[in-house]
Amino acid sequence: MFEIIYQDDNLIAINKPSGWLVHRSWLDKHETVVVMQTLRDQIGQHVFPVHRLDRPTSGVLLFALSSDIARIMSEQFATKQIEKTYYAIVRGYVEGEAIIDYPLVEELDKIADKFSDKNKPAQNAVTFYRGISKIEIPIKVRKFDSVRYSFVELKPQTGRKHQLRRHMKHIFHPILGDSKHGDLHQNRAFADYFGIKRLMLHAHILKITHPIEQKQVILKATLDPNWQNILLNFK
Fold first, then answer.
1. What is the pTM of this model?
2. Which of 53, 100, 135, 163: disulfide with 57, CB 3.0–4.6 Å?
3. Which residues pair with 133 in a beta bridge?
């Protein structure tokens, strides 16, 4: 059963575990266990997605409990009225805070986007980041005798596909466990040392305006025990 972090007559939010598809997808045609169906069975009513999290990302996932509420909430996401905060563990030392303002060319899927414009110009993409803590581990990776990792806070100001993963790669601090945009040697070293193999990206906080009550609601998803055990090593 999913951990429900908020529920009323209009909305429900869960702490999505890493590895779950939000809904059935051509990306994995054989996957029959998905969040939408499982949550529907858990609470005994239909749920309507208003945003998404990538399969390997954990954290706050919000659903509406009617199509009308889904439309209202989807508009909030589309017009950037939602504030999102993520946690990540990245390669290297990240000090202080800064803004990444780096346009991104849309990533197209070979099947789902095969009729899309492949010459579309890069889109505006902005991410705030802040270093929280760090660690150096004496394990050899390629020519280096030790590895350095940082625990960071990320706040996307725009909503481009894989924005956080691509932006952190752009500043040479890829997110650990990212098989597409990360460093495979670092991913392997991290997984072997900590005994965990997943994307180290977690949707920690979602701030929304309630569609009926028109008040701010803060949805917060705690880190799972694996995350918490890893962070005990950071300073």
1. 0.91
2. 53
3. 151
